Amino acid sequence: MNRLSLTLSRGVARVTEAALGPYQSAVVRIGFAGTWLLFLLREFPHRQELYGPSGPWGWNLAKQLTADNHAFTALLWSDGQLWFECCYALAVLASAALLLGWRTRTASLLFMVGVLSLQNRSVFVGDGGDNVLHLMAFYLVFTRCGQVWSLDARRAARDEAARARGERVPADRVGPVLWAVLGAALGTATLTGRFDNGWLVPALLWTAWAGLGLWWAAGRRAAWEQPRILLDVVANVLHNGALAVIMAEACLIYATAGWYKIQGSRWQDGTAVYYPLHLDYFSPWPALADLMSSSGTIMMIVAYGTVMVQIAFPFTLLNRRAKNILLVLMMTEHAVIAVVLGLPFFSLAMITADAVFLPTSFLRRLGDLTARARGRLVRRAGRTVPGPRSSEDSAADRVGFTA
Predict the structure, then answer these.
(1) Which phi and psi (to 5°) does residue 282 adopt?
(2) Is 158 exposed, middle or buried (0-12, 13-18, 19+ CB in 10 A)?
(3) Quick one: average pLDDT of 164-189?
(4) Which of 72, 106, 110, 104 shows the shortest CA–CA distance to 89?
(5) For 7-53, what is each residue's pLDDT tens digit?
C-alpha cells in the first residue's frame, strides 16, 4: 500500500511540477504552424475560389450549413471583401507568429481562430491533413509549446540573465497591449451577437483571455506567490493532458485507418495502392507512378506493409526501439506520398503528428545541429550570434503563458 501511494504521489508530482515534452510540443507547434502557413501562401492566388465570399460555395450556403452544425467561422460575420482579406491576413500572421514562437499563447489562440474560420467556411475543399490540422489547432491552445525553440524562450532567457547580473528588466508592454486589444475584440464580437452558432469557441477564448490577465497580474505582485504557483500547476496539468490527447489522437488515426483498410477487398488482395497512382488528380509525376506500379510484387508489399505498420504502431509504444523503427517507416511513407501522389500538406501534417513521439535526445541533437548551421551562416554574413541555450532554464519553462 505504501509503495502504491508513493508511486501515485510521484506520478502526480511529475504531472503537476513541469510541462513535459518541451521539445515534442515545440515540434508540433512548428510543424502545424508551418504547414498551415505554407498552405495559405501557396493558395494565396486562389483564396477567393476557396474561401472568398464569391466562391463556388457561396456565403448563403455556408451560413445555412453553420447554422445547422454550429461550426465556428469568423468569415461569416460579414460577406464583405475587406473582411475576408483581413481574416486571411490575420491567419497568415498568426501562423507566422506561432511558427516563430512570438507571444505563443496569444498566437495559438489566433491560429486556432484562423484555422477554424477558413476550414469551416468551405468544408468541402479539405482532405485528411486538414482534419488533423483542425484538431491539433484546438489542442495546441492548451499546451505550453513555447518552452524551447521560440522567441518567447529567447526573451525569457535574456531577461533571466539580466536579473542574474543585477540589471533592471524593462516591463513588458507588448503583452498588456495585445491583451487589451483582444479583450476589446472579444467584447465587441460578443455584444454584437457574432457568437450565435455555438458556445465552445467563445467560452475558450474568454477563459484564455481571463487566464492570461490573471497570470500577468500574479507575476506583477510579489504577494501573489501562492496564486502564481497554483496557476503554474494548472498550466502544467493542461499542457500534459493536451500532449497526451495529441498522442492518443495520432494513435487513433493510425489504428482506425489500418482496421478500415483490412475490411477493404482491394487492400486484402494487395492492389489498393495501384489505383490512386493512376488517377490524374493524384499523379503529378506520371512516369514515376508508372515505374512504381510496374511491379505487382512491390504494390502488394506496399499495401500490406502500410496496413501492418498502421495497426501495429499503437502497440509499439510499449517498446522504444520498435516505436522508433516504425516512426521512421511512417515518416518515410508520408514523404513518398507527398512526392508521388502530390499531397505535400497532408504528408506534412501527418509527419508533424508522428513527431510528437520522437525521442528527446534526437530532438536536442537536431536543435544543436540547426543552431550550429545557423551560426555558420550568420558568421559568413559577418555577424555573431549567441550559442544554443539549455531547455532547463527556468525562465524558458515559464514562457508558456506569455501573453
Answers:
(1) -110, 30
(2) middle
(3) 91
(4) 110
(5) 777 778 888 888 999 999 999 999 999 999 999 999 999 999 999 98
Q: If you average pLDDT over residues 145-164, what whole number do you get?
A: 92
Q: Sort 136 into a burial class: Cβ within 10 Å, 0-12 / 13-18 / 19+.
A: buried
Who's near 282: CB < 8 A, 6+ residues apart?
276, 341, 342, 343
- The overall longest dimension of the chain from CA atoms, in Å, is 73
Query: Mean pLDDT of all residues in the chain?
Result: 89
What residues have CB less than 8 Å from 216, skipping those under 6 apart? 175, 176, 179, 403
CA–CA distance, 44 with 183 (Å, rounded to integer)? 29
Written as nine digits, the cell of 295 is: 511491379
The pLDDT value recorded for residue 127 is: 84
Residue 151 CA to residue 101 CA, distance in Å, equals 5
Query: Residue 67's CB: how many other CB atoms inside 10 A?
Result: 12
Query: What is the distance of C-alpha 231 from the center of its chain?
Result: 23
DSSP state of 167: P
pTM over the 0.85 mark: yes
